[in-house]
Specification:
This protein has 25 helices and 24 strands. The chain has about 800 residues and is α+β, with helices and mostly antiparallel strands.
């Protein structure tokens, strides 16, 4: 019996090549997308699960509440972990780690690396297999060094490196570090991605901080099996509060509001997808569960569209198979047997599509990796879990695609179909409803794609408040000695015609509270030199910028932005000149000598906040900004590199254009623009090939009607409208459903940007026009062919 079912199914596939191809192509694309998204989601959920102690490892997280603002930080100070390990029985061990950029020298070649400085039990608590060395003793000596296999080959050309040394500079001088172990490398699904490990006890010699308030490194604790996590958190909080009580009261006085700090334990395996305290400060590969949800939804939608095509075509083909079904019923076939037959056909189509999908997934995996910023390999397509998923996907797809058609086809009455009394040309609400669903999803995604593109274009064209063109940033070592470097650079480059200006700024971000009158203002703190505003072309609205003419500027003067003036409650920029500000509780005050126009020092996802600028020598420079001429950029960059290596011979050279820095702020949005664009194209393609198949069937089923209409004088345009009219109506209905849904989705997405576009009517009109135009092109090819055919052929008796 099964053999007969399979043979019949195969004959139907061969007999109806066009429709079989449409079914198989649609299903294979849907299955391919599902496979790739499954691999992506599987990889996301696998992060850090290879550690032997994964169930017992937790990171200590601080939750700060300042007034009505809340922030989670995955960092603590150095004393926290060791104190808890000694005082709380459930805490078996603590491990601290911190990522710090260092300079490595090998044969007069300099490299910037970011190793992890870790406690000596790091390799015992975390599972990173060693190729050579002892995990328990590898990091006990302050000058020991652990390299990954790839890093060992980079610096020494082999993995036989135990006992060899590298010169590494963490502060002002190079020191020798001896290789004591070699790891097999870091798995790609690890938030701890360091290829080089150094002892934290060495770092603490130069950067000691035994306080409890604040934080600068990650602290992990290994709990005893079966420990009560909530109980451990309660004990931690009690010890923590005793040690920070005085500091907390002082912070509340400085901030002028309530300040609360609570500790919690974050599972190691939850860090990668954490929405609040994610991987940073030496940890890597953070992500958001939202991406996995969105990609999963896209995969499901595409598979649904493919199944809709299958269902529509199977039902639409019912008239061609009605006599076969009638004869089978007359010969004694039960409805159950017919249902099983059609499900078998569905399984055969799904199996062929599935095998094709595996080949497609392997072929486009490199493109998918680039699109999703992953490094998935072909090996990810194997494994027992993947095989179970494949089997489940095949069975579910076969059932979804074949169940409803099998019910419809097996329900035909033999007397009606054998006397040509059965017709499928009447109203078919399910078929039309599925077409509407298909095009609703397609229009929804195209509308979202247009909105994402427009928002990114808006961000690229937005007035940032300064001139970002041809601005080059060069990183310099952060130390007291860096105070002199900008002046040296200016002297060296003074005669270069392609250099238009040089300025200096601190590296990274620094925030703090400033008291202005009776108000305490949270501000961005910046260390700049006297040329920063002119090089960036930032307008000074009132007063003046810094100047070497005023020798007191470095200690007694500051410049603020417009947002600071508004936060302080002053009437205008001019009113701020001469006002004094200072840190809360500090008697030392400085005078405001200038107010600059607000500019976007962060991405346009965030509002411009109050900012204060100083030349205080206690605050070190870390960046030099050079404005260059747009002509002969390559030669200018080469000259800057030569100059840098002459002035700073023992620190690696790196540069970046300001436009590149700004583009990196929107890297995630750019990636999602590409993903949604590809998904939109697939949605439209699958919808249209399904529509194409339905039009062919509609023409075949109505060929005699079309022939009669032509004989009676119907114009080609009328016949085209007859054939395609119901489908165009379905697309128009889809537009009116998709428009409000996409408006809601776009509005929610834009809430993540402080500065955003307005959602204009043309966005929806454009997406609707694209889909309707493509649908019309798809329909017209077959409709015109049917309308132009010789009616004599269609009116012949079958």
């Amino acid at each position: 019996m099964l053999k007969n079912y399979l043979l019949t199914a195969w004959r139907n596939l061969i007999r109806n090549k066009v429709f079989s191809l449409i079914k198989i192509l649609g299903l294979s694309i849907g299955l391919t997308v599902c496979m790739l998204i499954f691999l992506y989601t599987r990889d996301e959920l696998s992060f850090d699960r290879f550690h032997n102690n994964k169930a017992q490892l937790y990171r200590i997280v601080q939750d700060w509440e300042i007034g009505n603002k809340r922030q989670s930080m995955g960092i603590t100070n150095a004393v926290v972990g060791e104190t808890f390990a000694a005082a709380i029985p459930e805490v078996q061990q603590s491990v601290r780690l911190k990522g710090v950029t260092v300079t490595v020298k090998r044969n007069d070649n300099l490299f910037n690396e970011t190793p992890l400085f870790v406690d000596d039990n790091y390799l015992s608590v975390f599972t990173f297999p060693l190729l050579d060395g002892n995990s328990k003793t590898a990091l006990t000596d302050p000058h020991s060094l652990v390299l990954s296999e790839s890093m060992a080959k980079k610096y020494f050309g082999s993995t036989e490196v135990i006992g060899k040394t590298l010169q590494i500079k963490t502060a002002d001088t190079f020191e020798g570090f001896t290789v004591t172990a070699v790891t097999a490398g870091t798995p790609q699904n690890s938030t701890l991605q360091a290829e080089m490990l150094l002892p934290l006890n060495y770092y603490e010699k130069y950067n000691s901080n035994k306080g409890w308030f604040g934080g600068s490194l990650h602290t992990f604790v290994l709990l005893a099996p079966g420990s009560n996590k909530k109980l451990v958190e309660t004990k931690m909080q009690g010890i923590f509060y005793i040690n920070i009580k005085d500091k907390l009261q002082k912070a509340q006085a400085e901030q002028g509001t309530t300040v609360k700090i609570s500790l919690s334990l974050q599972p190691l395996v939850a860090i990668h997808l954490s929405k609040e305290a994610g991987p940073d400060n030496g940890m890597a590969a953070g992500s958001s569960p939202l991406y996995a949800y969105l990609l999963s939804c896209i995969a499901v939608f595409i598979l649904v569209i493919a199944c809709i095509n299958f269902i529509n075509l199977a039902v639409a083909q019912s008239l061609k198979r009605s006599r076969e079904i009638g004869i089978r019923k007359v010969m004694g076939s039960s409805r159950t047997q017919l249902i099983f037959q059609f499900l078998t056909e569905s399984f055969l189509v799904s199996l062929v599509a599935f095998l094709l999908a595996i080949c497609l997934a392997a072929a486009i995996l490199p493109f998918f990796n680039q699109l999703a910023d992953k490094k998935l390999s072909i090996s990810y397509l194997s494994g027992m879990g993947v095989y179970i998923f494949y089997l489940a996907l095949l069975i579910v797809t076969s059932f979804i695609a074949g169940f409803y058609p099998s019910l419809v086809l097996s329900g035909f009455q033999p007397v009606r179909v054998l006397y040509n009394m059965h017709s499928s040309t009447g109203k078919n609400y399910l078929k039309n409803g599925l077409i509407v669903l298909q095009f609703t999803m397609a229009i929804f995604l195209i509308t979202c794609t247009i909105a994402v593109v427009e928002q990114l274009n808006f961000l690229e064209r937005a007035d940032l408040g300064y001139d970002s063109r041809n601005l080059v940033r060069i990183d310099i070592p952060v130390s007291n000695a860096s105070e002199k470097l900008p002046g040296i650079f200016k002297n060296e480059l003074a005669s270069e015609p392609n250099v238009l200006g040089i300025a200096a700024k601190n590296d990274g971000r620094s925030t703090g509270s400033v008291q202005a009158g009776d108000k305490i203002i949270n501000t961005e703190r910046n260390k700049i030199d006297d040329r920063f505003f002119s090089v960036f072309k930032i307008p000074v609205l009132a007063g003046r910028g810094f100047s070497p003419v005023y020798t007191a500027d470095s200690l007694h003067s500051v410049v603020v932005n417009e947002s600071f003036v508004k936060a302080a409650g002053w009437n205008n920029s001019a009113a701020a000149i001469g006002k004094t500000v200072g840190r809360p509780g500090d008697k030392r005050l400085v005078s405001i000598v200038g107010v600059i126009k607000d500019y976007h020092f962060l991405s346009l996802k965030e509002k411009i906040t109050p900012a204060i600028y100083t030349m205080n020598p206690d605050f070190n420079f870390g960046q030099i900004w050079i404005r260059i001429k747009p002509t002969d950029i390559a030669a200018t960059l080469a000259m800057l590199e030569r100059t840098y290596k002459k002035i700073v011979p023992y620190y690696p050279y790196s540069y970046q254009f300001m436009n590149e820095v700004n583009a990196q702020n929107y890297a995630i949005e750019t990636k999602w623009k590409q993903i949604i664009s590809v998904a939109s194209g697939l949605f439209v393609f699958l919808s249209c090939i399904g529509l194409f198949g339905l039009v062919i069937l509609s023409v075949q089923q109505r060929r005699k009607e079309i022939g009669i209409r032509k004989v009676l004088g119907a114009a080609v345009s009328r016949i085209v409208l007859l054939v395609s009219g119901q489908f165009i109506v379905a697309v128009i209905i889809a537009f009116f459903i998709a428009a409000p849904a996409s408006y809601f989705a776009i509005s929610k997405w834009l809430e993540g940007f402080a500065y955003r576009i307005n959602i204009e009517w043309w966005v929806f009109a454009c997406s609707g026009s694209i889909v309707i135009t493509v649908a019309l092109l798809t329909l017209s090819s077959q409709a015109i062919k049917a309308a132009s055919a010789n009616p004599a052929k269609s009116l012949k008796t079958d």
